[in-house]
Design goal:
- The complex is a heterodimer of chains A (318) and B (310).
- Chain A has 12 helices and no strands.
- In chain A, helix 4 runs parallel beside helix 12.
- In chain A, 68% of the residues lie in helices and 0% in strands.
- With 318 residues, chain A is an all-alpha fold.
- The relative contact order of chain A is 0.13.
- In chain B, 78% of the residues lie in helices and 0% in strands.
- Chain B is built from 13 helices and no strands.
- Chain B is flat.
- The chains are: A mainly alpha (318), B mainly alpha (310).
């Protein structure tokens, strides 16, 4: 008789009588049971992202910022551009939570109004980048061969063009407005995204499951929709998260050199630029609030992007 | 290697040509003639001015003249500052901006690499967390905000450094610090992550097994391989530092090219804007080209690939 593990018992243990061994019935139900709930890719990524404290801090900050950007200007009793000269440079108080600036405008209201503009510019620019990048990079990577070669040469040339200079040029000629700023930012911004998408598509299209889908007669559109895009989504999302702060910075930078949203309107860059003279006379809060929110928003997007990068990387899955 | 160089220089030339063409196209779309707002001049004078600057020629002739002038390194006159050409402004401003930029890049590269190595060697230690937290902050705070913060605290409140202008090494500290923080943080993060990756490689284990000193392992084996990605992003960093000089020079009242550039933007001095853009682009493209060559030299795979393949 064979013992439970199928190896002949060693001579020393042969003194134990066979009757002592009982055959244990294999519990078929227990074997089939799944010990842990199965997690989809996104559930797993979300679970890992939640464990990253910095990324969650960034995410919560961004959610709060979005809520305040929507509600802040509505809740505040002050208008964005109502000037109140006698009350200029008021310290933060119960009346003006963030104080007032040189023209007596309420900094609290202007800060949330600036959040609207910064978030809008950042998100719209990033979305347009993704849209163009997916189409361009997707075609380039999927078609391959000569098409890919030509499209990549074009990218290489565009990549050498200093983007902020082209942005400045465009804004000088077109005149700064919300629309032209987004246009100028996206005209060179999509190149990075296209490179990432192309790299992903190039890699994924050679995997066996794509070959399997092709041999089962899957159409190109189905392969792109069902296999390529979902699997390339991770790096795309990371790149998008990291390109939002770039756009926000560019908007603030352009406002700062006088090419942003024009002055009666509030954007964080405009507010920072307006209050440059004010801090030297000790009115720190006019600069502090826009500066704090630009920096912390970029910080939040950066740590969230870092966290997403780790969470969406299947190689780091535990 | 020669093939690689040829390909790179061809791409650089095409990029430059595209930029020159874009600036030209944008220049002719600007409504009105550059002289139309000169109140004192009558129509005859305006016509003469336009003839003097070849603005009465058809566009394709203007384009050829413009291309020829740029090829001869003549970037044209300033229309807001009489008797000044863009070349004059560049000659005065560029050496200062170049000095600021070069000091910044040297400071950023050295300190970034040092921070990155220390973080990687003390992985998950307190120093690692501190310097990486500092790095994320450095990436997130825009340089113009850092600059104002430095002026307010270090120059005005504590009077440690001069507030503005550009004349002695002490004047350089604050602008360079404000400009170098971002690139330094990026380099530190990149060096750290590639160092961590390299340190797990077999050849590092091999070097340890051979009994090499930690110093030699770190610098001779790990760092040399970890520096590759740093060289790749040098081009992007240079572009960032260059555009950074615009605001930094303005804030610190440094009489460099960036200050003239921002002034010309605010005065809508189109020839200066266009000329400076072309000059800056050419400079950047040249730097990118240099970076590519350096990359080709230090990465043996490129040389091997070109020798073996193709």
């Amino acid at each position: 008789m064979k013992t439970a593990n199928g190896i002949n018992p060693a001579p020393s243990s042969s003194s134990i009588p066979d009757e002592w061994f009982t055959l244990k019935e294999k519990d078929k139900d227990a074997a089939e049971q799944v010990a842990r709930p199965s997690l989809s890719y996104w559930q797993d990524a979300w679970r890992r992202l939640r464990q990253n404290k910095m990324a969650m801090l960034g995410l919560i900050f961004l959610i709060l910022l979005t809520i305040m950007a929507i509600l802040g200007p509505i809740l505040s009793p002050y208008e964005v551009n109502t000037q109140d000269r006698p009350n200029q440079y008021q310290l933060p108080s119960s009346e003006h939570w963030f104080g007032t600036d040189a023209a007596g405008r309420d900094v609290f209201t202007r800060t949330w109004y600036g959040a609207r503009i910064s978030l809008f510019v950042g998100l719209v620019a990033a979305m347009i980048d993704v849209f163009i990048g997916i189409i361009y990079g997707g075609i380039s990577g999927y078609k391959g061969g000569r098409t890919d070669n030509v499209m990549m040469r074009i990218i290489e040339i565009l990549y050498g063009i200093p983007s902020l200079l082209v942005t400045i040029l465009l804004l000088v000629v077109l005149g700064p407005s919300l629309f032209t700023i987004i246009l100028a930012l996206t005209i060179t911004g999509w190149v990075g995204m296209a490179r990432i998408v192309r790299g992903q598509v190039l890699q994924i299209k050679n995997y066996e499951y794509v070959l399997a889908s092709q041999s089962f007669g899957g159409k190109t559109s189905r392969i792109i929709r069902k296999h390529l895009l979902p699997n390339a989504m991770g790096p795309i999302i990371v790149q998008m998260t990291l390109s939002v702060p770039t756009a926000i910075f560019a908007e603030a930078f352009l406002s700062f050199i006088g090419l942003g949203i024009q002055s009666p309107y509030a954007s964080w860059g405009v507010m920072a630029n307006d209050s440059l003279g004010a801090i030297l006379s000790g009115n720190w809060w006019t600069l502090f609030f826009p500066a704090f929110f630009i920096s912390f928003t970029m910080f939040a997007f950066n740590v969230l992007g870092d966290g997403l990068q780790d969470a969406l990387d299947p190689k780091l899955r535990k | 290697m020669l093939r690689y160089l040829l390909k790179r220089s061809l791409i650089a030339l095409v990029t430059l040509w595209i930029i020159v063409t874009i600036t030209f196209l944008l220049m002719i779309t600007v409504p009105g003639s550059p002289f139309s707002d000169e109140r004192s001049s009558n129509e005859t004078i305006q016509a003469n001015l336009e003839a003097h600057y070849n603005l009465d020629e058809p566009y394709h002739v203007q384009y050829l003249i413009y291309m020829k002038n740029i090829a001869m390194l003549d970037l044209g006159p300033s229309i807001k500052q009489p008797n000044q050409t863009v070349n004059d402004l560049l000659g005065r401003g560029f050496p200062i901006s170049f000095e600021l930029g070069m000091v910044t890049i040297i400071v950023a590269v050295i300190s970034g690499i040092v921070f990155g190595i220390i973080s990687a060697l003390r992985h998950n230690g307190i120093i690692d967390y501190l310097s990486m937290g500092f790095a994320v902050l450095g990436i997130s705070i825009p340089n113009f905000i850092l600059a104002t913060l430095f002026i307010q605290k270090l120059a005005v409140d504590w009077a440690m450094f001069p507030v503005a202008t550009w004349s002695s090494p002490a004047h350089m500290v604050l602008p360079v610090a404000a400009l170098a923080t971002g690139p330094m943080a990026i380099i530190a993060r990149l060096t750290r992550s590639t160092m961590l990756e390299v340190l797990t490689q077999d050849y590092i284990k091999m070097a340890k097994a051979k009994g090499l000193s930690p110093w030699k392992i770190t610098f001779k084996h790990a760092l040399r391989n970890a520096l590759m990605p740093v060289v790749t992003i040098m081009g992007t960093l240079l572009a960032g530092i260059l555009t950074g000089t615009f605001v930094i020079e303005q804030i610190f009242a440094i009489p460099g090219m960036g200050k003239y550039f921002v002034e010309s933007i605010n005065q809508r001095d189109y020839p200066v804007i266009m000329g400076t853009t072309v000059f800056y682009s050419a400079f950047l493209i040249f730097m990118l080209f240099l970076v590519d060559i350096v990359y080709g030299i230090i990465d043996p795979r490129i040389k091997l690939h070109k020798k073996g393949g193709e």
